[in-house]
Write a structure and sequence with these properties.
35% of the residues lie in helices and 27% in strands. Strands 6-9-1-10-11-12 form a 6-stranded antiparallel sheet. Strands 2-3-8-7 form a 4-stranded mixed sheet. Strands 4-5 form a two-stranded antiparallel ribbon. It contains 8 helices and 12 strands. The protein folds into 2 domains: 221 residues, no CATH class; 59 residues. It is an alpha+beta fold and 336 residues long. A hairpin with a 5-residue loop joins strand 2 and strand 3.
Length: 336
């Protein structure tokens, strides 16, 4: 029997986290790497305004779970079949839903694929197979003050500042602050020059080009936005008409997410460490998964996975599936 499931997701940032949107150049030349933001309505009585607040995109969470699920199945197949390589088309189809070579499948082919590969069935692949999983964006718990969750970090190309000196590999906070100040002062002075030149043109007065402020090179100076630690985001999942095997595969992927405890970019410098809580939205105690980081050392965490009833049955069913999985469960799209 195919069933529906609603699952709650709560994410808390343990370290700063950055979900990158694009690079932007502000007036004055300051280069900023922006994080993703979404529009949110803030209403205070009759006063309504739109704020752009940080969020954790559903697409990123979904993609991570898909990659975790794919890796687990591929590892199992390689172990069971004692093989090293699988077809790229099928791997791409599982990882991202791409790689299909034709525009449609017959109903029988779709059902065969769903039965043999829960990843393709639940997440879908292109226009060939419709996915059964819906993922919500994770939105700040405190929407009203969400703008305050965004901060900036300064990055500098040290060689550009101290090139040729014995301190070429070193810099201090004061040096960075002094340089930032000089860049700001230079930008402001150049703005005044432009305003003075415009005024002179309008009043037919002369403007001394030689007295213009020279542009200060700021190619070495950039800033990046990030979300502060300690912020809580609420999201969730909706599984539509899923089989026991599909549910089990999804629970294994969630378990991998709990074990990983990472999201976003710059993880090599400690960004993206998160605490996670997952539970059945129907307020049953049959599904609870949790990751809680150690306050003394964020890379240690206490993990808890508690499954009962149909969730436990589904998890165990997929565990048995993994033990018997072969390349016949993966090499599906490429054969059609």
């Amino acid at each position: 029997m195919l069933k529906y499931y609603k699952i709650k997701l709560v994410i808390k940032t343990v370290s700063p986290i950055a979900i990158i949107e694009n690079n932007d150049t502000e007036p004055g030349g300051n280069i900023v790497t922006r994080i993703k933001k979404t529009a949110a309505v803030n209403q205070d009585g009759s006063d309504v305004k739109i704020d752009y607040i940080p969020y954790l995109p559903a697409n990123g969470i979904r993609g991570l779970l898909r990659r975790l699920a794919t890796k687990k199945l591929v590892d199992a197949v390689k172990e069971n079949d004692k093989i090293e390589e699988l077809k790229d088309t099928d791997l791409h189809a599982m990882l991202s839903g791409s790689g299909a070579s034709k525009s449609g499948l017959k109903f029988k082919e779709i059902e065969e694929t769903r039965e043999k590969n829960p990843i393709l069935s639940l997440f879908g692949t292109g226009i060939l197979i419709a996915g059964k999983l819906k993922v919500a964006d994770a939105i700040p718990e405190d929407k009203k003050n969400a703008k305050n969750l965004v901060r900036r970090q300064t990055f500098v190309k040290v060689d550009d500042i101290l090139m040729g000196t014995k301190f070429s590999q070193l810099y201090t906070k004061k040096q960075i602050e002094d340089w930032e100040k000089s860049v700001e002062e230079n930008s402001e002075a150049r703005k005044k020059d432009r305003d003075a030149k415009k005024l002179a043109k309008e009043t037919t007065e002369s403007f001394n080009e030689d007295a213009k402020t020279k542009k200060s090179s700021i190619q070495h100076f950039a800033q990046r936005e990030y979300i502060v630690s300690g912020a809580t985001f609420n999201g969730g999942f909706f599984l539509e008409k899923v089989s026991k095997l599909e549910l089990g595969m999804f629970l294994h992927a969630l378990e991998g997410f709990i074990e990983s405890g990472r999201l976003g970019s710059s993880q090599n410098i400690g960004f993206g460490v998160i605490d996670i809580r997952i539970e059945d939205a129907n307020k049953s105690t049959s599904l609870t998964m949790q990751r809680s980081s150690d306050n003394s050392y964020i890379f240690n965490a206490e993990l808890s996975v508690k499954l009962k009833n149909e969730f436990e049955e589904a998890y165990m069913a997929y565990s048995e599936f993994l033990k018997k999985a072969t390349k016949e469960n993966i090499e599906l799209i490429s054969k059609f």
